[in-house]
Amino acid sequence: MTYGVPLGSFPSPQHGPDAEWAKLSPGFGDNGHRGHFGEQFIRMLAAAANIDAAQRDRDRVGVDWQLGHPGRPGRRRYPVIEAQVKCTSSPELHDDHIAFDMKAQHYNELAGRDYDIPRFLFLVLAPSDPLTWSEVTPERLLLRKAAYWTCLHDQELVGPGTSARRVHVPRGNLLTAATLHGLFSPDFRAMVGVS
Length: 195
What we know:
Elements: H1 20-23, H2 31-48, E1 52-55, E2 65-68, E3 80-88, E4 92-93, E5 97-103, H3 104-108, E6 119-125, E7 134-136, E8 141-143, E9 146-150, E10 164-170, H4 177-182, H5 186-191
Parallel strand pairs: 3-6
Antiparallel strand pairs: 1-2, 2-3, 4-5, 5-10, 6-9, 7-8
């Protein structure tokens, strides 16, 4: 039974003249759409890593996702981290880092050690053409392009009158299922004074 859906091979609606749906989608490719893609990129990565991701109801404290898992036998139970997600299609790439300018308020919500839970910046790099953000075949769902992480607990807060702060996100900090689990390390809890 096909439930009214014809079976067979169809051209991809992602590209070319068949992408008419994109023109009819309000806000397609704008900053809000890009930001939402970045947040869902992290959610998909967390799901692949078997990590729970809870989104905040209100963005009052500079956190987009709270991530956690049950823990491992003989280790701390139910560890939790928090993340602010930014997404850009125009990264400033250097050999060893990505330079990213943050609003001072968003930077201050991650910098310093005065937190009960370790916090991270997740920087998602997305292609400039939103039609290439995803590719679907019967074998895979491919999301482009990549996400990187950094921790700002060792950085000083910026004072009044500062509008933005440039951060250097190490290119070696590629966010994967394994490195996402690594962010639950006791080292990051120690940085904020939580044992």
